[in-house]
Every structure is written in C-alpha cells, then in structure tokens.
C-alpha cells in the first residue's frame, strides 16, 4: 500500500463527506499501525491500545470504529469477548486510477480569432 496515496485519498473523501474527529483519529492511528506492520493484509490490536494511541474514551472509540466501518474505511472481525478484533484497512485509492474525473482540466489552446494585446501603445501621428 502506498502511504501517501492512501492518506491523500482519505482526506479527499472526508472533504466530500466529513466524518467525526474520533473516526479521523482512529483511522490515522490504525493506518500508522498498519504501516509499522509493513502493510499486512490484516492485523490484531487491542481496543485499549487503540483507545490510548488515538486519545479516545471507550465510548468515542466504539462510535469512531462503527463510523469507519459504516463508511467503508476499515473492515473488522470481532472475536469472542476476551479476544481482540482483527482489523483490515481498506485501500482507498486504485492502482489503475491514473486520472480522476473532476480533478483534471483540459484547456484547448487553439484560437481561431485574433486576440488583441492587453496593453495598447499609442502611436504618434506625423
């Protein structure tokens, strides 16, 4: 996974559809752990560790996690009550995506009409 592409796409998505600060903090924390684990397909981390690293209360953590799941940023497999959840980060960008619609402007520089200069100099007549 490309860290910069993932981060840029995350910010573009939340610009279009904002999410809570709790969800943002949790996503950044999960992405940081994911990167440290060399982009494993999935990873296990305790809720208490995520809460501390993201700076969230237990209630805010659960709301943020549900928001990330709902919006398709992460996938979570919950274990038994005494087991930590398994997290999978969703790749937000596409490797095949070279041009995104709406971000590229094509300008046609062909002009069929004569363009007058912006500044006209007065010519003295003799």
Automatic annotation (TrEMBL):
It comes from the Bacteria. This is Uncharacterized protein.
């Amino acid at each position: 996974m490309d860290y910069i592409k993932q981060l840029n796409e995350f910010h573009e998505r939340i610009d279009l559809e904002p999410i809570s600060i709790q969800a943002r903090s949790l996503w950044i924390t999960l992405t940081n752990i994911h990167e440290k684990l060399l982009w494993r397909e999935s990873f296990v981390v305790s809720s208490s560790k995520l809460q501390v690293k993201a700076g969230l209360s237990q209630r805010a953590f659960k709301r943020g996690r549900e928001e990330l799941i709902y919006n398709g940023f992460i996938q979570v497999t919950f274990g038994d009550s005494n087991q930590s959840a398994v997290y999978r980060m969703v790749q937000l960008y596409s490797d095949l995506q070279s041009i995104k619609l709406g971000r590229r402007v094509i300008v046609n520089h062909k002009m069929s009409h004569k363009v007058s200069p912006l500044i006209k100099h007065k010519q003295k007549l003799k």
